[in-house]
């Protein structure tokens, strides 16, 4: 089937809830993907950081194939031998007492919100139905109705109401606004340590540390959504480590499976995750043995291949290189680790299309921002080649 046939078929039979770049990928390896015509492209998006470990990592592939031949799904009506191993590995790696496995990132966020509300009622003593959760302007936490209900992006909300109550939005990066929004009914503050979908937006230095202190003062759970920022992307295992804090609850997803399978989890203390009793919450696929075997292998790659350190080193190099580009189109270059943004004063889409034509895959976010987030396993030479293409395209299309 040609690329044109493939795209036509997708558009005829599939809902149009995405506007993809027109490249039809057939296979991938490491930082490179190949289209149906055999042309190769450097992947500078890494599936929104789900493939931090690089495409089709052989160790994760092996774990997946071996487990798929044994047992894939038991449901949690029965126990399986892989779940405890993943839970132990998550504890050993992150220090959190407990984890609750789910599938998509949005499900992990929903689970964290449910845990926070129930903790608010049963531990903090908030009246039933009165718990409030604070969130940030320009947040992105997924696409369920409750999550888009507290989005500040009108497109994410439009047509999908009514939405659940009990969420209040505060400006991102403003500790005083957070303090003012606290009440005795506040049970949690949900925040991305660096806002990804908003365009790799870094809060002012010290913000997370202040937020953690304000939450502690008010007996409010600090919930960090590390689904995109976590597992090495920013140069640390978790982005919150840059400020030396420890959140009460962390959500992980995306790279938790290295891109093989949807696996997410909520990490927290026994006090928080202990609020769930049998039957309170669940998921048919959550914690299944295939997911757990994959996630364990994916975490091992993060550690064994020193992905946070690679991200820090390569990211600093890339940031310096991008800041040398002279173009009237560039408003700002920013980022942390291998998670970089070039903000333009013009729509970024045509730059992404020109990059695709030169063999580099990037995707615009919020219209004017080019996000650079290759697999953390990318070689320095491949990264330099990609940065060179970006330089060319920004200067040529100027
Ligand atoms: C991608 C993302 C999610 C949602 O994950 P899905 O797997 O798409 O549901 C939630 N939070 C953040 C910060 C994300 O980047």
Task: Give me some keywords for this one.
alpha/beta; single chain; 2 domains; Aspartate Aminotransferase, domain 2; 398 residues; seven-stranded mixed beta sheet; Aspartate Aminotransferase, domain 1; binds pyridoxal-5'-phosphate
Question: Could you characterize what this model shows?
Answer:
With 398 residues, the chain is α/β, with parallel strands linked by helices. It folds into two domains: 3-56 and 307-396, Aspartate Aminotransferase, domain 1 (Alpha-Beta Complex), CATH 3.90.1150; 71-304, Type I PLP-dependent aspartate aminotransferase-like (Major domain) (Aspartate Aminotransferase, domain 2). It has 14 helices and 15 strands. The chain has helices at 3-13, 46-49, 58-68, 83-94, 105-124, 145-149, 154-157, 175-181, 207-217, 270-273, 289-304, 307-323, 349-357, 380-396; strands at residues 25-29, 32-35, 40-43, 98-102, 132-136, 167-170, 186-191, 221-225, 249-252, 264-268, 330-335, 340-344, 360-361, 363-365, 369-372. The chain has a seven-stranded mixed β-sheet, with helices on both faces. Strand 14 and strand 15 form a beta hairpin. Helix 4 (83-94) runs parallel beside helix 11 (289-304). It is globular, with a radius of gyration of 21 Å. Bound molecules: pyridoxal-5'-phosphate. The site of pyridoxal-5'-phosphate has 15 residues, from helix 5.
């Amino acid at each position: 089937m040609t690329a044109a046939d493939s795209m036509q078929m997708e558009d005829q039979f599939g809902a149009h809830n995405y506007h993809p770049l027109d490249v039809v990928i057939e296979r991938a390896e490491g930082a490179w993907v190949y289209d149906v015509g055999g042309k190769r492209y450097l992947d500078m998006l890494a599936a929104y950081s789900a493939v931090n470990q690089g495409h089709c990592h052989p160790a994760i592939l092996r774990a997946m194939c071996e487990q798929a031949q044994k047992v894939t799904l038991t449901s949690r009506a029965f126990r399986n031998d892989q779940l405890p191993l993943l839970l132990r590995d998550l504890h050993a790696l992150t220090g959190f007492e407990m984890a609750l496995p789910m599938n998509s990132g949005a499900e992990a966020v929903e689970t964290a919100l449910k845990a926070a509300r129930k903790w608010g009622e049963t531990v903090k003593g908030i009246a039933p139905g009165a718990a409030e959760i604070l969130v940030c302007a320009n947040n992105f936490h997924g696409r369920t109705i409750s999550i888009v209900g507290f989005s500040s992006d009108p497109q994410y909300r439009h047509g999908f109401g009514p939405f659940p109550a009990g969420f209040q939005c505060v400006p991102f990066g403003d500790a005083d606004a957070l303090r003012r929004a606290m009440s005795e009914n506040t049970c949690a503050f949900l925040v991305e340590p660096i806002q990804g979908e908003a365009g790799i937006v870094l809060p002012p230095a010290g913000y997370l540390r202040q937020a953690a202190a304000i939450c502690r003062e008010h007996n409010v759970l600090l919930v960090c959504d590390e689904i995109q920022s976590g597992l090495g992307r920013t140069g640390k295992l978790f982005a919150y480590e840059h400020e030396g804090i420890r959140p009460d609850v962390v959500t992980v997803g995306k790279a938790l499976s290295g891109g093989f399978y949807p696996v997410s989890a909520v990490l927290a203390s026994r006090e928080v995750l202990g609020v769930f009793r049998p039957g309170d919450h669940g998921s048919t696929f959550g914690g299944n043995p295939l997911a757990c075997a994959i996630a364990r292998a994916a975490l091992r790659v993060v550690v064994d291949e020193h992905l946070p350190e690679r991200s820090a080193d390569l990211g600093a190099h890339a940031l310096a290189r991008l800041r040398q580009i002279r173009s009237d189109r560039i408003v700002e270059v920013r980022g942390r680790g291998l998670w970089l943004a070039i903000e333009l004063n013009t729509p970024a889409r045509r730059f992404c299309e020109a990059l695709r034509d030169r063999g580099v895959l990037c995707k615009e976010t919020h219209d004017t921002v080019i996000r650079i987030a290759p697999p953390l396993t990318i070689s320095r030479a491949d990264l330099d080649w990609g940065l060179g293409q970006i330089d060319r395209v920004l200067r040529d299309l100027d």
